Amino acid sequence: MQEKKYTPLSEISGGNAEKPSKLRIAIQKSGRLYDDSVKLLNECGIELRNVKDRLKTESDTFPMEVFFLRDDDIPQYVEDGVADIGIVGENVLFEKNKKAEIVEKLGFGKCRLSLAIPRSETYQGVQSLDGKRIATSYPFLVNEFLKKNNISGEVHEISGSVEIAPGIGLADVVVDLVSSGSTLFMNGLKEVETILQSQSVLIKNNKLNKEQEILLDKLLFRIKAVKKAKRNKYVLMNAPNEKLSEIIALLPGMRSPTVLPLAEGGWSSVHSVLSEDEFWEKIEQLKAAGAEGILVVPIEKMVM
Ligand code: PRT
Ligand code: ZN
């Protein structure tokens, strides 16, 4: 029988690494984080080959392989090194308590893990939970919370529809994810403590080789440019020349505002970048200072 010949992995990857020189990222297969995760990769110039109903795919525009998984499995896959990096909610990451480092907060999938009690009851503080039955899908985080507050509660792990537990007599209180609060409200519950504020994060393990670290730096550079652009707007306005210095003093710009003469004498066009936090206040001040025809345009990428 002829001996089977294997191509060493180092040859496939270009000769100098045990792992291929691409980044393997784990993202949610379907659910609340899927769209935003794929959109973020796209905005970073990482186009994915037909993603529908696939377990994994590759990008033609970046050395990246993408694994589609249940969000609960992502921390484990990253810790084990099956994936190098991943996108997951902090709630899942901390609950699973795996060895993975947060490299960037991504600003989507925002929610909080909260304690809720029946609306008819008056909350008497954390100590009143002593001996209570607590239904949750987050037993690790709830036990940590109880330990931290020196309380002993009875934690009942439920995988879904936690909010119905008090109504059917399965528990006294619940700890669940909340975003708008309407699920709790519809189930006769009220939020009384926040255990964790959560958003999606990019995580990595400590097994990346040099080339993968360089690729991760490239990805992070792009993610930061995309995030920064989302927090800023490009603003154009017309200004009478005699008001220019007052208007320019209000505008930060990347370095300083751009000023161009208009066809009509005595007027200029002023261009600048405004951050979301101060946006409305600045627009009001600019109008008061004499700016007219103010146009606000979204920015796609912002490289500093
Ligand atoms: O199949 P897979 O395991 O991958 O998905 P999943 O069903 O476990 O998770 P999914 O897709 O529902 O949520 C993925 C992640 O989105 C979570 O781990 C959080 O990081 C984040 N996220 C943000 C939320 C919410 N907001 C949220 N509101 N996850 C769940 N909810 C649920 C919550 O459990 C409750 O049932 O929405 C309900 C409450 O919402 P409000 O608006 O009524 O308060
Ligand atoms: Zn899940």
TrEMBL record:
Residues 70-224 form the ATP phosphoribosyltransferase catalytic domain. Its main location: cytoplasm. It is an enzyme of class 2 (transferase). The keyword Protein biosynthesis does not apply. Its cofactor is Mg(2+). One of its GO terms (cellular component) is cytoplasm. Its EC number is 2.4.2.17. Residues 229-301 form the Histidine biosynthesis HisG C-terminal domain. Pathway: Amino-acid biosynthesis; L-histidine biosynthesis; L-histidine from 5-phospho-alpha-D-ribose 1-diphosphate: step 1/9. It is found in: Cytoplasm. Gene3D superfamilies: 3.30.70.120, Periplasmic binding protein-like II. Keywords: Amino-acid biosynthesis, ATP-binding, Cytoplasm, Glycosyltransferase, Histidine biosynthesis, Magnesium, Metal-binding, Nucleotide-binding, Transferase. One of its GO terms (biological process) is L-histidine biosynthetic process. GO terms for molecular function: ATP binding; ATP phosphoribosyltransferase activity; magnesium ion binding. The keyword Endoplasmic reticulum does not apply. It catalyses: 1-(5-phospho-beta-D-ribosyl)-ATP + diphosphate = 5-phospho-alpha-D-ribose 1-diphosphate + ATP. Feedback inhibited by histidine. Catalyzes the condensation of ATP and 5-phosphoribose 1-diphosphate to form N'-(5'-phosphoribosyl)-ATP (PR-ATP). Has a crucial role in the pathway because the rate of histidine biosynthesis seems to be controlled primarily by regulation of HisG enzymatic activity. Belongs to the ATP phosphoribosyltransferase family. Long subfamily. HAMAP family: HisG_Long (MF_00079). NCBIfam families: hisG, HisG_C-term. This is ATP phosphoribosyltransferase. It comes from Lacibacter sediminis. The gene is hisG.
